Amino acid sequence: MATSAVARETVFALRRQIAKIEGTLPERLQAPAGAAPVDANVRGPTADVSPTPGDLTIVRRGLAVAPPDAFVRTGAEALDTALGGGLPKAALSEIHGAATRDAGAVAGFALSLVSLILKQGPRLPVLWIGTAEIFREAGFPYATGLHRLFGIEPEQLLFSEAPRLLDALWTAEEAARMTALAAVFLEIRGSPQRLDLTATRRLHARAQSAGRPVFLLRQAGEPEPTAAPVRLVLSAAPSAPRQTIAGPLAGSIGRPAFTVSIGKSRTALPGQFTLEWNPDERSFEERREGRQERTANPVPVVSASRRGKDPAPASGAVLAFAAVGSPAAGDQPSPGERAAHRRPRRAG
Q: ∠228-259-130 over CA atoms, to 5°?
């Protein structure tokens, strides 16, 4: 009887120790009623079962034991809080686009993450790996817009086009172990069979060992089990109108916007957020639901027209009227008129 009680207490101690390492919720650390807390070094019936002060550890949702610089913070407080501090740096993170038409939104969000990573750490090169199929369908990022929107120099973004998925996975695994790169992106289309738990576990292990983030960009694929601790589902969101000193500019296109959903996380609850990328501050701003314009504008807005005191009013509806004396619909010009139309126009 005493042996079974000690064995049960040993299991409870091991579970508590594993929960501390994984950052599990506090309620999972509670032992059943009547069970005495024990130290993790219990080995036999003569061990001390009294609780020690060092054994009482407060664990919160998320990676509580990780330092603040272990995350890539997006700048959107709600999303960062839901993720427990942001996207982990030394890990594999999955960014999923439901359809091929979302490839632009996924690439834009990925380039925003590159900008955040380069702003927080050394400006090392970034390797973007993809198959010939994905680059043929989605294209390459536009080099001219890299610096203007994300502060990335074109020579900092390296591309590797692999003919097969097997070659792309091998390149990603070798690049993930390198500390000379700021981040590694692997862009895959569809749900290939080779991209399984074993392949993603290797990528995740290499990222943890090198201390560098590896991002798996999935285009038009079904959500499948991977070793990535976090999966974000991306789609494009309607842009808000541009802000001027006279108010929102009707019919204009403002900052890039993304709809971000937490599809999978070991610590966060599911949620959906609408983020706007601020190219001036190089950070994300959350757009509140039901509100298109921001409460504060920390950057200069678009200036009004200088030709007049007030900006020009918006144009009204355009209607088409038949000109007076014009031929009716269906009438054809005479042969003489056709010849006149062909003659060159005289000056003067």
A: 50
Q: What angle do CA 114, 115, 118 make, to 5 degrees?
A: 85
CA distance 208 to 229: 12
Burial status of residue 98 (CB atoms within 10 A of its CB: 0-12, 13-18, 19 or more): middle
Retrieve residue 140's tokens: 């390459």
Which amino acid would we find at residue 285?
E
CA atoms of 95 and 24, how far apart (whole Å): 24
Q: What is the CA radius of gyration of the chain?
A: 29
What's the first-to-final CA gap in the chain, in angstroms? Answer: 117
Give yes or no for residue 144 having a pLDDT over 50.
yes
Supply the angle between the helices 197-210 and 165-176 in degrees, to the nearest 10.
20
Between CA 195 and CA 5 the distance in angstroms is: 45
The model's confidence at residue 329, banded by pLDDT at 50, 70 and 90, is low
Q: Hunting for tokens 């900008």 — which residue is that?
A: 115
DSSP 255-295: S-EEEEEEEEESSSPP-EEEEEEETTTTEEEEPPTT--S-S
In 3D, which of 76, 81, 39, 38 has the Cα closest to residue 63? 81
pLDDT digits (tens, 9 = 90+) for 260-312: 999 988 777 788 999 999 998 899 999 875 444 444 444 444 444 444 455 55
Give the DSSP letter of residue 102: G
d(CA 194, CA 200): 10
- Going by the DSSP 8-state scheme, the letter that residue 344 receives in this structure is P
Work out whether strand 230-236 and strand 214-219 pair parallel, antiparallel, or are unpaired. Answer: unpaired
Give the Å distances, CA to CA, from 223 to 101, 181, 218: 17, 28, 9
C-alpha atoms less than 13 angstroms from C-alpha of 19 in its C-beta half-sphere: 22
Residue 207, CA distances (Å) to 38, 168, 212 in order: 35, 16, 5
> d(Cα 268, Cα 228) in Å, to the nearest integer?
13
pLDDT tens digits, one per residue of 118-137:
988 788 999 999 999 899 88
The two three-digit tokens of residue 334, written as one number: 């005479």
